[in-house]
Amino acid sequence: MTDHYCVFGHPIGHSKSPGIHAAFAEQTGEAIDYTAIEAPLDDFAGAWRDFVAAGGRGANVTVPFKEEAFRLCEVLSPRARRAGAVNTLILGKDGQTYGDTTDGVGLVRDLERHGVTLAGARLLVLGAGGAVRGVLEPLLAAAPASLVVANRTAGKAERLAADFADLGEVRGGGFDAVSGPFDVVINGTSASLANELPPLPDDLFAAGATAYDMMYGAEPTVFLQWAGERGARGVDGLGMLVEQAAESFFQWRGRRPDTTPVLEALRRAL
Ligand code: NDP
Question: In terms of CATH, what superfamily is 3-101+241-269?
């Protein structure tokens, strides 16, 4: 018997998730199918209910529904509660909807894959939207020396830092207050989507620093180009995408796929 999963978004045509999960299913021998569903902007909860009524067992959730998914869950994982967002819905045997977020663990696993040491490092995270809120807990759990959140709207970064201050040394502010050097700089803004670069000082990077952009593409983003010119090693967010998918797959199926061949195939196809 085949179990049904999907990703909800709006728009959703561009999603790489069906291909990633098909590759995981083939690799692990799990009998699942996985489709992309464009949920209506005004009725995400209805789309999930319909999917469950048709036999759906779980779903990923992407822009713009992660907060709505959070609100409809009957049970939340501690990390989803902290993030205020859900990217993984799980239909429990009891019929309840469980919510989790796997973006943060996806980022940390991808950083580990690239040999980035977070413990004791000076971290800078750019942006204060949903993606950044989802990654702060696992980043702080890795025990960095310090973490600065910088955002175009400074107040949002300050509030975010205050929300996570119980987990470690974290400060928030505007881009103008950023003062390096940093060992790891993570771009979690959507500026790269518009080919824009947040206004950052030239001396941002420590020797041997890593610049990570949650965006990805066939070419390095404008942020990664800028960072490379200043001596930092660049990593894009394709690995984060695959790792968060693997963690969702694990939550649904109890099996952990090998992400490396899937990531390599996706990279070749970009
Ligand atoms: P949000 O819309 O929630 O937040 C966007 C953030 O970007 C805000 O902090 C906003 O600042 C900032 N921003 C937007 N435009 C600019 C600009 N021109 N200059 C500087 N800052 C800007 O988006 P998300 O947090 O959901 O997503 C952010 C990025 O992360 C996206 O590119 C997304 O594709 C990527 N992502 C990648 C994932 C992966 O698996 N690789 C997973 C999740 C997200 P302000 O508050 O001032 O408006």
Answer: Leucine Dehydrogenase, chain A, domain 1 (3.40.50.10860)
**Ramachandran class of 212: left when φ > 0, alpha when ψ lies in -120 to 50, beta otherwise:** beta
Interatomic CA distance for residues 156 and 260, integer angstroms: 35
Pick the CATH number of 104-236 from 2.40.30.10, 3.40.50.720, 3.50.30.10, 1.10.10.10: 3.40.50.720
| For residues 10-32, average pLDDT | 96
**What is the 188 CA–ligand 1 centroid distance (Å)?**
5
- 129-174 pLDDT, tens per residue? 888 999 999 999 999 999 999 999 999 999 999 999 999 999 999 9
Token digits for 239?
């690995």
Helix (H) or strand (E) holding 207: strand 205-213
Ligand 1 in contact with 191 (CB < 6 A)?
A: yes
Model pTM? Answer: 0.95
Note whether 2 and 22 are within 8 A (CB): no
The residues carrying an active-site annotation are 66
Is 194 touching ligand 1 by the criterion CB < 6 Å?
Answer: yes
Cα-to-centroid distance, 160 and ligand 1 (Å): 14
Residue-wise pLDDT for 60-107, tens only, equals 999 999 999 999 999 999 999 999 999 999 999 999 999 999 999 999
Taking the centre of ligand 1 as the mean of its atom positions, its distance from the CA of residue 54, in whole angstroms, is 34
Mutation test of ligand 1: which of 190, 193, 213 has the most ligand atoms closer than 8 Å to its C-beta? Answer: 190
